[in-house]
Amino acid sequence: MRALTGVLATAAALSTVGGAVSAPAAQAADTEPASRFTLAVLPDTQFYSRYAESQFELPERYGDGNNPFAVQTEWLAENADALNVPFVAHLGDVVDQVGQDVEWRTADAAMRTLDDADLPYSILAGNHDVRNSADDLFDDQYDLAQEPFLDWFGPDRAAEQSTYGGSDPTGMNSYHLFEAEGQQFMVLALSWRASDATLAWADQVMAQHPTVPVILTSHEVLNIEPDGVTPKETAYGLRLWDQLIRGNDQIFMTLNGHFHGTSRLVKTNDAGNPVTEIVMDHQMAYEGGNGYLGLFEFDLTNGTISVQTGSPWVVSKPTEKLTAYDQAFLEGDNQQFTLGIDFQQRFAGFAPDFTAGSPDEPSLTQRARDILLDGFVGPDPVTTERPAGTSDFPQVPGTLAHWRMNGLEGTLAEGATIPDVAGGNDLTRVPIAESGSPTAQPGDVTVTGDADPFSSDGAAVCFTGSNKQTNRFSYLTTSADAPVNTAALAGGYTIETFLKIDPSWNQSDNAWMKALVRSGNRSQIGVPETRWDWTASPVALGLSNLKEFQWTEVPIETAKGDRTAWSGEIMVDTWAHVALVNDPAAATTTMYVNGAPVLRNASDTVGHGLDGAMPWLFGSDWVDDRATNGWNGCIGETRVIDHPVGPDQWLTARADLDAVAITSPVVDQGLKPLLRVTGTGLAGATVTVTGAVRATTVVGADGTWTVELTRPLLPGTREVVATQTLGDRTGEASRVRFRVTAVSVVLWPIYKLLGR
């Protein structure tokens, strides 16, 4: 069984794109001495800064009093000489909450380690590092006197770096010139939403250093498709491409964070040369990123850039605290790879004298692995694979409801239903006239094949046009007598769903929208009066005004009041698997997003406090005894289980193909000899039977299968073997032996004559 996590262990395939060749780093490492150096990259550190004092630095956490950000910079300072690191590039989102000094102090202390070690670095502001991160507000429109980034990491501090070249008039953007292997490189660091004036300044900087290769760092350039691998261009990234990158041949690489995950894209500039764009951000993985940083080995002799994603934080943890998420290196697609680049040829148009340095460095990629893995024994990683069909998910006893949309398509008409395949809890679209939303439209609810790639259902219900300003929303509901309505879940629970936020989401129209709700009124069930949400539903999963998933529940002991779990910022137009697991033994509810537990979870909570047998809702909230604030996005298959289960039983895990069973080989040796083999398995899977009978069949919808052999068998011990296959996966064989004691007197002579 395999479950979805933030750790993917598939290797990148060898490919050639736009003149750049890529392959897995581990395969490309050259052990012969060469001219090499390592560029270190720090992606989004926002959660390390936010939770340093409240979580990471608590002695009971890991006993060392350090947070991942501090460990990252300490490790780089300690190993800069060994890895020949001339420069470190931070990609923005230094902090999570721009107005919290405690976060800036944490970031200041971590980066001060590099200052003290004389290890130069660039740092830029991400959207979380500025007061107003609206897409249409550019850096020359900021009230610069109110920007904390300038107080903590402005030009005065940047000037302390030996590599500092200068800043633009806002002070938000800077450039650095570092030397490596006898050659000069520039890092051009552009903060959130560079204005036209800033881009003109960047042009001028490059014009003043016309022979220097440039690495452009910015918080946003490249995004990632919902599959978590494929690159996706953004409007702002294309703005940078059109106005700055494509016309400046010096820019050969861009690095950005912001979008959760890793991906890369090779484009061709106006000079006909490749530019590699790389996005790297691990903030939604375990522990807010688990301390992963980028190590880019430039091999000027052999013409490669080898990229690794490693974590000094992981290897610093006590062994007894390690989980399957704790891998020293990430080795999935775009997490470990090698780019082929003929540096002299690539830079010939502006730096004809560019040459490699002395070939005296061993493989720095291997050296980094040796350093991080020295004495570290980690657990096996948890990997995942995509479903082979609609049945490819674990069947879990105790499933109370499982809503699936496969087989439906197009507009979901008023009064139409989405089935509960567990039985008895179908969802019905509430007619507009009864919904309380006179502005809703019939086409606002559709079923689409655009689903999370790890959902075996392969379908989702989407809600469009939702807007709290115009009171427009639509929703689905269970019937008043649905059995799941009365489930208090005293034995704990697992609730799973797949969610996607529509790209049109904005704070004024969609803040606090809800996807999944247990309707009712908190004020009627013994919840202490609160300033906010006292008349809201007892249980709900939705999105905050800051695009965070919020799970809010009133437990069975309603006097305890609200209990919440929160994610970090969620990207729009990207699927996420959300699992909510209530463990009654620990009295906790943990939210997992794409397999990784979030940092803020609910405690002292068991089950759900209910306002009678109120329905479950999809697509809207329930406040003041009425529906409101509709979901602007899509909801995939959703399941409710009456006890806590782990990742190996989630919808992102794959079906247990070993569960094929032979229930009975039935032998009838009469005038019409028959061997019938019956069994159970996964509906839709292929069963291959060998041994006394050879046949292939498909498991029926009821989970049973049958094959027959219409010829007699000689007396003696016989065996039938059944294996189950789904897609390219095959389970363990099931074997049954049986004894044939007699053959029909009529058929025996013929059988013997034939030598049977």
UniProtKB/TrEMBL annotation:
Residues 40-230 form the Calcineurin-like phosphoesterase domain. Pfam families: Metallophos. One of its GO terms (biological process) is carbohydrate metabolic process. Coiled coil: none annotated. Keywords: Signal. The keyword Signal applies. One of its GO terms (molecular function) is hydrolase activity. Residues 1-28 form the signal peptide. This is 3',5'-cyclic AMP phosphodiesterase CpdA. It comes from Modestobacter versicolor. The lineage of its organism: Bacteria, Bacillati, Actinomycetota, Actinomycetes, Geodermatophilales.
